[in-house]
Amino acid sequence: MKDLTEPLLPELHQDRNENICEKKSINLSRLGTVLVITFTTFILLLIILAAQLPPQQTMGMTTIGSQTLSSNLDNSGWVRTIYGEYKLFAEICLAGCDFDEAVAVCEEQGGHLPFIQSEEENEEVKSILSTSPQSVWIGLISKYRTGSWQLYKTEDAATYFNFLTEDNEESHQSHDDEDARCVILEVDDGGKWIKTGCSQRKDDKGGLVGVICQRLPNVTEDVSMRVMMGKSACDDGQKGIERDLQNLERDTECNEKHNNDDRIVKLKEGTETMAEHCDKIHEKYVPNHVCMNQAVDYSGFGIIPTHGPHRPNWASFGEYSYLPIERWQHNLEHGCVVLLYHPCLDHHQVTMVKSVLSGFMRKHIITPSRLPSLTRPLMLLAWGCYLEFQFKDLDRMRSFISSHALGGPEGNYTKDGLYTHLQIVKAEIPEGSDRKDSIVCPPL
User: Fold this and answer.
1) SS3 sequence of 371-386
2) For the whole model, what pTM was predicted?
3) First and final CA of the chain: distance in angstroms?
C-alpha cells in the first residue's frame, strides 16, 4: 500500500491525458465519416443534375465492321410522317455503307431501315431524300430464298414492291442474280428499287450508298391536344390490337351459339322504304384519338355510332374478314363509306353488294358486323349518317353513297390507312375516277 503522504496528482493527470486522446480519436473518426457522407452526397447531386440536362449532340467516330463511321447521335433532323419518323444520314459511312453497316447505324439511332409498305410511303421517303439525292438501303431482304422478300429482322413477308421493270434493269446492271439479296432505293430513278448485293457500298453510278433510318416516335399531340395520327408509341397499327378483336368470332360467324335466331337470311326484292338516319354533329366537334392501352367508349353515341372516338390509325381502304369499330370510325372521319353486313347474310348477295361499293369509290370499308340485324342485314354508313337495308335496292345504295361520300371533317384526306390486319382485298381506283375519288359512282 502506498504511503498516504505520496502525492496523487501525477496519476490523475495521466488519466486525463488518456481520456483526451480517446476523445480526439473518436472526433477524428466522426469527422472522417461526415466527410465521406458529404462527398458521396455531392457526387449523387451531380449525377441527378446531369440527368436533368437536355441531351447534347455527340460527335465522334464509331467502328462498325471493317470501316470507321462518322457518328452523329443528336436527336435533331428527324422528319415526322404518318409512317413514323425518318432521318437521312448522307455521309455517315465515309466509304459508303453496306447493308449490315446501314443496319448498325439505324440501330444505334434507336430505329431501323425503312419498312416501305405502300406507294404513298415510298413517295414520302423519296420526298425526304430529294433534299440530298442519293441511293439508300431499305429494310428488305431475300437472304433465305431467292426471290422471296421479307422485312429484315422480322418474319413478315413483303406485300409492296417498287422494283424497276426488267427493261430498265438491263441498263442499270441490277445485280439481279443469286447475290442480289438486298435492295437500295434510287431517287434518280424516280424512287424505284434496285436489287443488289448486300456487301455493295456504291450504286450503279458510282455514288456512295447512304442510310435513311425509320423509328417509332413518342406520343405527340396536335394543336387541339389530340394524339396525332400515324405510327407512334400510342398506336402503330400492330401492337396491342387484340384489345379490339374480342368480338371477332361473334361478328363473323352465323351460329346459334352467338344468337339462338341465327340463320341464313336474304335481302328482299323491292324498293327500300327505310329512311336514312342522320345525327346532328357540331361543326367544331373533333373526335378523340384513344391509345391502344385504353378501351374506346361509345356509350352516348347511339346504338349505331356514326361518329365518335377511335384509334389514331385508320384502316387501309378495302375489304376485311373483320374490322373493329375502333378502326372504321376513323375512316368515317376521312370521308369513307362503310358497308356492314350481318354474318348470316347470304354470301351471294354479299358478293353482289360488295362489288357495288368497291366500284363506286376508292375510300371504302367492307366488313361483317352485328350492328345490322337479321331483319335488316345490311347497312351503309358515312360521317353522321347510316341507312339500313332489308331490300336489295341498288339504286338506293348508289344514292346514299353519292350523297354522303367524302363528307367527313377530313374527307379530302387521300392517304391510305396503316392498319391492315385481316384485310383481304385492298381498294383500287374505280374505272373512270381517280385517287381522290373526284368522281364518286362513275358511270356503269
Assistant:
1) CCCCCCCEEEEECCEE
2) 0.73
3) 136
Give the CA-trace dihedral at 84, 90, 95, 97, to 10 degrees. Answer: 10
Alpha-carbon distance 80 to 82, whole Å? 7
Packed helices 394-404 and 347-358: angle between N→C axes, nearest 10 degrees: 40
Q: What is the CA radius of gyration of the chain?
A: 34
Within a 10 A sphere around the Cβ of 56, how many other Cβ atoms? 9
DSSP summary character for residue 414: -
φ, ψ at 302 (rounded to 5°): 90, 170
The residues facing 400 across adjacent strands are none
Residue 272 has which C-alpha cell?
327500300
Q: In which residue are the cell numbers 368497291 written? A: 358
SS3 label, residue 71 = strand
- Residue 37 makes CB contacts below 8 A (sequence gap 6+) with none
Query: How does DSSP classify residue 178?
Result: T
Q: Is the dihedral of CA 46, 47, 52, 56 positive or negative?
A: positive
Q: Which residue has the cell 455517315?
A: 92
d(CA 189, CA 4): 118
The arithmetic mean of pLDDT across residues 413-422, rounded, is 96
Q: Which residues contact 87 (CB under 8 A, 6 or more apart)?
A: 77, 78, 79, 109, 111, 212, 213, 215
Judge whether 320 and 424 are in contact, CB under 8 Å: yes
Contact (Cβ atoms closer than 8 angstroms) between residue 290 and residue 327: no
Integer CA distances (angstroms), 52 to 47, 48, 220, 270, in order: 9, 7, 21, 71
Three cell numbers at 333?
A: 372521319
Task: Report residue 395 as a C-alpha cell.
Answer: 339504286
Alpha carbons 194 and 197: distance in angstroms, whole number: 10
Q: How far is Cα 40 from Cα 33, in angstroms, rounded to an integer?
A: 11
Separation of alpha carbons 339 and 378, rounded Å? 7
- Residues facing residue 425 across a β-bridge: 319
pLDDT exceeds 50 at position 61: no
Query: Given the C-alpha cell 346459334, which residue does it identify?
Result: 256
111-138: per-residue pLDDT in tens? 999 999 899 999 999 999 988 878 999 9
CA-CA-CA-CA dihedral for 387, 389, 394, 399, to nearest 10: -10
- Nearest Cα to Cα of residue 265 among 203, 212, 153, 341: 341
Average pLDDT value over all residues in the chain: 85
Rounded CA gap, 149 and 158, in Å? 6
State the Cα–Cα distance between residues 159 and 231, nearest whole angstrom: 18
